[in-house]
Amino acid sequence: MATNDTSRLAGPSRPLGAPEVPQFYLPSPGHQGIYTPHLYGAASIHFADRKRKIDETRRVAFTVPLLPAARTVDWDAAVPTPVAPADLVAAEPAPGQYLPLPAGAMDVAAVTRWAKKFDRWLARTQRLDIPQKPDASEPASVGPKRGGVSVELVAIVWELTQAAQPPAA
Questions:
Q1: pTM score
Q2: Quick one: DSSP state of residue 89?
Q3: Distance in angstroms (rounded) separating the CA atoms of residues 85 and 40
Q4: Least CB-packed of 25, 35, 100, 111 within 10 Å?
Q5: Within a 10 A sphere around the Cβ of 137, how many other Cβ atoms?
């Protein structure tokens, strides 16, 4: 989510959150810009249905924007990302300005609640479409098996969302 309101910038260094909450950067081509905070969630989901002979595990990752005034996270607003946990970058890939973190991102208990909501959201929303017979009226799908959601990582990630304007010549 790009923003043109640079008056809300927190500054040239990354805002500190709770030390127990990991922070990473999404991979970037390395241009200057403005970093916006997102909550990143990655999990593996196990779908199983013995009757239909289904036994499949899927790895997923999502990001949701962390707005400065946010007290909660709406995982329904999350978007899938192809970035796996191993592809997250620990060091700032390019210089930039930072938007502020919401107060909840600095509270371990709040981030723990957000992680639990991520787990529940995945169990509620993730489905595995299965082949069906041609005479069936509705598409068939299977949800995660009970206990089949395993959250691998919930972290704050910084995305370079707006390229800085080059200096005038």
A1: 0.81
A2: B
A3: 9
A4: 100
A5: 5
